[in-house]
Amino acid sequence: MSYLKVTDLRRSFGEGESRVDALRGVSFELQRGEFVAIMGPSGSGKSTLMHLLGGVDRPTSGSIELEGVSLESLSEEKRALFRRRQIGLVYQFYNLVSLLTVRENIALPLLLDGRSPAPGQLEKLAETLELSDKLDAYPHQLSGGQQQRAGIGRALITCPALLLADEPTGNLDSANTRQVMALLRGFHQSMGQTILMITHDRELALQAQRILTLEDGKIIRNEVNR
Known about the structure:
The protein has 226 residues and is of the alpha/beta class. The protein has one domain (4-224): Rossmann fold, CATH 3.40.50.300. The model has no long low-confidence stretch (mean pLDDT 93). The protein has helices spanning 46-53, 76-86, 102-112, 121-128, 144-156, 174-191, 202-205, and strands at 4-13, 20-30, 35-39, 61-66, 69-70, 87-90, 162-166, 195-198, 210-215, 218-224.
């Protein structure tokens, strides 16, 4: 049984002559522990797909199943809860809460769920992210690379079923890009984290196990990296 199964996913915006078909029958599967990259030119439907997989939007038709749970069958409330507990999101522009410390930003998904990190969990994650000395700092006191690493920590603190990374290095210089990619590969290899990463950079995509190429709302190529 596939860990993530996407079947004939379609998403349209507008009606009549102004209708735009952003996704036109996208189907693919991920197995537990896979690291897959999605590539495609601007306007290919990558962001729309990410919003659907993250439970932020609903498809016009088609289905998304994660660990046997159908996302589109959930109510808004249950979908938000499932997203918070089972899907980790890493964004290009960090999206940290400016009034919260790094510690609070990383713990935020658990705090919103009325939970706290397990003893030592946050500190161990911060050590891996090289943020141990920044836990009481605020986002504006961090470099771009440090902010992105805090965003990765926030996405992983719930031990999510799926980590979605949307252009996670798109706002970073080459040194920080290498560091963030090393972290993603490390979490994939050491923890078996399932990762789906959107990127426009083929060199980065080649670090994944598989590349799905999206064009005009359809997957046109499925490559296995060797």
